[in-house]
Write a structure and sequence with these properties.
Order of helices and strands: HHEHEHEEEEEEEEEEEEEEEEEEE
Largest sheet: 6 strands, antiparallel
Number of strands: 21
Helix content: 10-25%
Oligomer: single chain
Shape: flat
Strand content: 35-45%
Radius of gyration: 37 Å
Structural class: alpha+beta
Length: 342
């Protein structure tokens, strides 16, 4: 009897020990190798089709629609994206340029600065060149995405003092070089110049705004200041539809007036010689919301003739949305039409 009890206890103890060992194996944490393998297998295995039930479809006994398998491979996609991204910065770059003066004569010995966004450690590589006796220059055998070109020469004004940028990749329409049609850069040979007067309005970091209801703002162009109504040479008036400030485009209209004088629009690169005639007492920019060429800002340049006959030019900027504007004026107090600064 005692022996039977002892055997029974031994059997029960063995069963308990086996259960403990089995439970431990079941809850053992997977090794890093097993985890990596499982993750890789998961990422590279297609997700099996799942039946998507549509209650309305099922009401008509239409079978469920099976979603096609989607393969997920995060590592491969990431590498492909990186290669595609890097490829843009490895675009071959070739550029042809030409430098001319105000009379379209070639300018030799102009200094050319190139800066190219690329895969160099700093992200930008710099190159230098000079225009030849025909005013021509070029660069090739480099790679990048954007090429900046700056042209300058001692004794000349540059129309683009900060240079220009040319995109070779990354945009819908990228620059295409043409040896038979080089990009033209204009320089203006400095003359004696004139002691011009004027200024920038508003001065410093202040902000000037036009009212939306046509309330006039008048400026004294000789010193770049705002003056009381009836005492300025330039009058500005803005009308803007404010019925819905979130609407864009919106109706707006601007009138620039020179009482007793006039304005002539110009897009000349160097506005250094005012015309003798053709001045208008006022210019209106009417911009209804229905205009297919609607503008949300204005950047314009005008020759001006003051009531006393003096000549000058103004650079005008307006943001119609809120009426913010700036005016830069350069007036020759001598009465000469020469507007080149001294």
């Amino acid at each position: 009897m005692r022996t039977s009890i002892l055997l029974f206890c031994i059997v029960v103890l063995g069963i308990c020990l086996w259960l403990l060992l089995w439970k431990g194996k079941e809850h053992r944490a997977a090794s890093p190798q097993e985890t990596a393998l499982a993750t890789t297998n998961h990422l590279n295995q297609p997700i099996q089709p799942q039946a998507v039930e549509n209650p309305q479809a099922n009401a008509g006994n239409t079978p469920p629609v099976a979603v096609p398998p989607i393969r997920i491979n995060t590592v491969s996609n990431r590498e492909a994206t990186l290669k595609q991204f890097q490829k843009k910065w490895q675009t071959p770059i070739v550029f042809y340029g030409e430098v001319v003066d105000q009379n379209t004569n070639p300018v030799s010995g102009a200094y050319i600065n190139f800066d190219c966004n690329d895969l160099s450690p700093s992200g930008t590589s710099y190159y230098h060149s000079e225009s030849d006796e025909n005013g021509l220059f070029s660069i090739k055998d480099i790679q990048g995405m954007v090429l900046g070109v700056n042209v300058s020469k001692e004794g000349y004004y540059s129309y683009l003092p900060h240079g220009d940028n040319f995109f070779y990749a990354g945009k819908n329409q990228n620059f295409v070089p043409d040896a038979n049609n080089p990009v033209v850069f204009h320089l203006w040979k400095k003359g004696q110049g004139e002691p011009l007067v004027g200024g920038s309005f508003p001065p410093g970091m202040t902000i000037a705004q036009l009212h939306h209801d046509g309330t006039p703002v008048e400026l004294d162009l000789l010193n770049g200041t705002q003056v009381p109504a009836g005492s300025g040479q330039l009058k500005l008036e803005l009308w803007r539809d404010i019925s819905d400030m979130k609407k864009q485009p919106f109706d707006w209209k601007l009138q620039l007036s020179m009482p007793g004088g006039g304005l002539v629009p110009t897009d000349e690169e160097f506005a250094f010689q005012a015309p003798e005639s053709g001045y208008q007492p006022s210019i209106v920019i009417d911009m209804p919301a229905t205009n297919q060429n609607w503008l949300g800002e204005v950047r314009s340049k005008y020759y001006v003739q003051l009531p006393d006959g003096k000549y000058g030019r103004i650079d005008f900027y307006l943001l119609p949305y809120n009426g913010v504007f700036t005016v830069g004026s350069s007036i020759n107090p001598s009465g000469s039409r020469d507007l080149e600064p001294k």
